[in-house]
Design goal:
The complex is a heterodimer of chains A (452) and B (345).
Chain A lengths: L3 E6 L5 H10 L3 E5 L12 E6 L7 H11 L4 E5 L4 H9 L4 E4 L4 H31 L10 H13 L7 E4 L6 H10 L8 E5 L5 H9 E2 L11 E2 L1 H4 L4 E5 L6 H13 L1 E2 L8 E2 L3 E6 L3 H6 L5 H7 L2 E4 L10 H16 L8 H9 L5 H15 L30 H15 L4 H8 L3 H17 L5
Helix pairs in contact in A: 12-14, 15-16, 15-17, 16-17
Chain B lengths: L3 H14 L3 H8 L4 H6 L1 H14 L5 H18 L2 H17 L3 H17 L3 H17 L3 H18 L2 H17 L3 H14 L2 H17 L3 H18 L2 H17 L3 H13 L6 H18 L2 H18 L2 H20 L12
Helix pairs in contact in B: 1-2, 1-4, 2-4, 4-5, 4-6, 5-6, 6-7, 6-8, 7-8, 8-9, 8-10, 9-10, 10-11, 10-12, 11-12, 12-13, 12-14, 13-14, 14-15, 14-16, 15-16, 16-17, 16-18, 17-18
The chains are: A alpha/beta (452), B mainly alpha (345).
Chain lengths: 452, 345
């Protein structure tokens, strides 16, 4: 639906212009000659009051118009008398344009106001779309493990600002849960700000989180708000919190305890109302024992803990997820959707999914591309031999330590394009040690008694 | 009372609002410079059309025109017009490999947009500043800009920009080695992205797939991107796609196919933007290294290094040197070295 350009004209001047102008900004035009005729239209329109030749009535007309159309309005005239202009601006006009000289500026004003209105609508619809996307009923999976987590999460949502700690292996969808909490909460229309604590080097992450004032350090030429401050009113998602440097852990703790944040180099602090959601794939309690993570921060973050089960513990979701991805790829690659055949289902169910949902997604996409839209069991690459963004490998158990070492050696050689020196370096062992591992595997395989 | 001047403005606005840049260009390009300066918004729309249509050949004319247009905007246009022009200036400098100048424009724009409380322009400035850091191979710094641009565009509900920023974030995470994070960002880029970024997302995601060993998926994506760019005849993007296909073929150890793709990329070098040109030459150096053609590798690497340094991206030269050293050592390791490859000087 087109946006509305409402022209309230006290004169016939410039009447030929409005239609062309509305067409240029792609808006629907309504022209009224009496203020009473615009009641009810003003709040959703961009409004112009045209007073050319009737400038003496301008102030009074504008005041009446503002009552029925309480939005930013511009006055358009022919006079450039500065007393008139200042009177109108003091009286509440957003701007005044004298035609024909100010035509370009008038267009810019209309365009900007239409865009602002459109932006408000779009921002609302973007949030509504996110709310639908992250609606719990739409998250794929019916396993008791997943549904248990979702039920737990839905109970956390009303607990407005309490900190949430999401744990789970890589690829389990911690980010999705964080977004689901945000978009199902009353904070949905405010910022969701996420930062991966691994991505930025220590010298940048402090500036990112807390912001700074000019002169705080060599490169700080202007002030910059931190992400904590930007997230005020909304949600701050700190992914891979286990990698946050110790000194910043102390600063973050102060923020959580005081509910205030202060830019680096500033003497004043900002009051905060932000929900912090932290996530990690590491065992934070173990890091606390090792002295690598502050115990007090751990307790502060772990107020509402959520643990996401690995995919192997929610086997009943594997096929549903595979079909969900197959459907999505069918749409993306332009093939008709074909259900996952039985033998492929069996293979998927037999796999241990160390890379979790992320690994499953990659496996399905590859099989989909190779099978030109059909998932075939021979195209499912499961287990070792393919580098995955997910951490961890699949090993059928029981398995010996020697087999794991040999598999690691083979994978490292493959990852290094056959370069054994680099592979040895990657594994932190000598070339001789690498050859020993590769050799032991070659010898072990024929007589192996492990269950494959 | 609509005179021909006003009619021209109205028609140009109409095309521009509908993002019909070809029509905008066709309408404005034949006009005398005096008309474009008398009504500077016409000039800004023409510059915008030139920038977005990515016609490298027009760059010379636009570069000469911008300083006078800037003055016209300052004296005759609303302040918003100056900000728009500054953004396009930044993009043009970037496209032509002048990263320092581009950054100066965009930092100034960031300041102007902040002062004017213009969140839309601020979001564009931040995203473009991130792209400059990306071109310098400063990915963590790029992420910092993207992060802020994202918050702004989300707030403004500019869907297509949200998609574009996620795509940039996907690239930055990929180069930082955070592949899972990169994949997540590309998925979001696809979800939010408008048609105009689909090809770019596919091409960048193809490189991610190469990194995680999913060569077949990477090739499917790169071919899909190529088809899109061929249809749109965006030659610099086509050249980049050929390079990506060469990298994917090299990943399969099919060096001959890699060479074939790369020769197609080289044929488009005159149409490619500097960063793309340098990356094509870098890939040529990599292939020649693997073929054991040391002298050819050195020539290509030196040419690439010259472009990177000219752009103000010395980190790219370091990374190229590291890559070529690794490939050379790998070749020596596998016992097939026939001659020492060159490293860039």
């Amino acid at each position: 639906m087109k946006q509305l350009l409402l022209v309230v004209s006290l004169t016939e001047s410039f009447s030929a212009l409005w239609e062309s102008l509305a067409s240029a900004v792609d808006a629907e035009l309504r022209v009224a000659h009496r203020i009473e005729d615009v009641a009810g239209l003003g709040t959703s329109a961009v409004v112009l009051l045209v007073v050319a030749g009737e400038e003496h009535r301008a102030r009074e007309a504008m005041e009446r118009l503002r009552v029925v159309a309480p939005v930013d309005l511009a006055v358009v005239g022919a006079s450039t008398d500065h007393r008139l202009v200042s009177s109108l601006l003091r009286g509440g006009a957003s701007d005044y344009f004298a035609l024909p000289a100010d035509l370009s500026a008038l267009h810019a004003w209309i365009d900007e106001h239409l865009r602002q209105q459109q932006a408000e609508l779009s921002a609302r619809s973007l949030v509504e779309e996110q709310q639908l996307e992250f609606d719990f009923s739409r998250l794929v999976g019916t396993s008791p493990a997943l549904r248990g987590v979702l039920q737990q999460v839905s109970l956390l949502i009303p607990v407005g600002s309490a900190t949430v700690l999401i744990t789970g292996e890589t690829g389990t969808g911690k980010d999705l849960i964080a977004q689901a909490i945000h978009y199902n909460s009353p904070r949905a229309h405010r910022e969701f700000v996420e930062i991966n604590c691994t991505a930025l080097p220590p010298h940048l992450i402090e500036a990112e989180l807390f912001g700074y004032e000019p002169g705080a350090f060599t490169d700080a030429r202007r002030s910059k708000p931190g992400l904590i401050e930007i997230a005020n009113g909304g949600t701050l998602f700190l992914d891979e919190i286990g990698d946050l440097p110790l000194d910043l852990q102390a600063k973050l703790l102060r923020v959580i305890e005081s509910k205030r944040t202060r830019r680096v180099g500033s003497v004043t602090s900002v009051q905060l109302d932000v929900r912090i959601i932290a996530a990690t794939h590491v065992d934070l309690a173990a890091r606390v024992r090792e002295g690598r993570f502050r115990q007090d921060l751990y307790y502060r973050l772990n107020v509402l803990p959520v643990h996401l089960p690995p995919l192997r513990e929610r086997a009943s979701d594997i096929v549903a997820l595979a079909e969900h991805f197959a459907r999505r790829f069918a749409e993306e690659y332009g093939f008709a959707f074909t259900p996952v055949p039985d033998e492929a289902r069996a293979a998927l169910l037999a796999h241990s999914w160390p890379g979790n949902v992320r690994e499953l997604r990659n496996v399905i996409e590859r099989a989909f591309v190779l099978g030109r839209g059909k998932i075939r069991v021979e195209n499912l690459t499961l287990g070792l031999g393919r580098e995955s963004p997910a951490r961890g490998w699949a090993f059928p158990f029981p398995v010996t330590l020697a087999e794991i070492q040999a598999a690691a050696a083979r994978a490292a050689v493959e990852r290094c394009g056959g370069n054994k020196s680099r592979a040895a370096k990657m594994l932190g062992i000598s070339r001789k040690g690498l050859y020993a591992l590769l050799g032991s595997q070659e010898e072990a395989e024929p007589g192996s008694d492990s269950e494959h | 009372m609509i005179d021909s001047h006003t009619e021209l403005l109205l028609e140009a606005w109409k095309h521009y609002r509908k993002a019909d840049l070809k029509a905008t260009y066709d309408l404005l390009a034949p006009l005398p410079e005096s008309t474009l300066l008398e009504e500077p918004e016409l000039g800004v729309m023409l510059v915008s059309a030139c920038v977005h249509l990515r016609h490298v050949e027009w760059a010379g004319r636009v570069n000469e025109f911008i300083p006078v247009l800037r003055e016209a905007c300052r004296t005759r246009g609303p302040e918003q017009l100056q900000r728009r022009l500054l953004n396009f200036e930044g993009i043009l400098h970037y496209r032509e490999g002048r990263l320092g100048e581009a950054e100066q424009c965009l930092l100034q724009l960031e300041e102007m947009a902040t002062t004017a409380k213009d969140p839309t322009t601020l979001a564009f400035a931040l995203n473009n500043l991130g792209i400059i850091r990306d071109a310098r191979a400063e990915w963590a710094e790029a992420l910092s800009y993207y992060q802020r641009a994202l918050v702004n565009t989300h707030k403004l509900g500019i869907r297509r920009e949200v998609g574009g920023i996620y795509q940039c974030m996907g690239m930055a995470y990929r180069e930082l080695g955070l592949l899972t994070e990169s994949q997540r960002m590309f998925e979001r880029a696809q979800r939010f992205g408008a048609a105009h970024i689909v090809g770019w997302t596919d091409m960048e995601r193809a490189l991610l797939m190469h990194r995680i060993g999913e060569t077949e998926v990477g090739e499917a994506l790169a071919r899909r991107a190529l088809a899109r760019f061929e249809k749109l005849q965006i030659k610099t993007a086509m050249a980049d796609c050929y390079r990506v296909l060469a990298i994917l073929a090299r990943g399969r150890n099919d060096l001959e196919e890699a060479r074939r793709w790369l020769s197609r990329a080289e044929a488009l070098l005159p149409h490619a933007e500097p960063l793309v040109r340098a990356e094509i030459l870098q890939e040529k150096a990599a292939l020649e290294t693997l073929h054991g053609n040391g002298a050819a590798a050195k020539r290509a690497a030196s040419a690439a290094a010259g472009i990177y340094l000219g752009m103000g991206a010395p980190r790219r030269v370091e990374l190229m040197r590291e890559q070529l050293t690794r490939l050379h050592e790998g070749r020596l390791e596998s016992g097939s070295a026939a001659g020492a490859p060159g490293s860039p000087s």
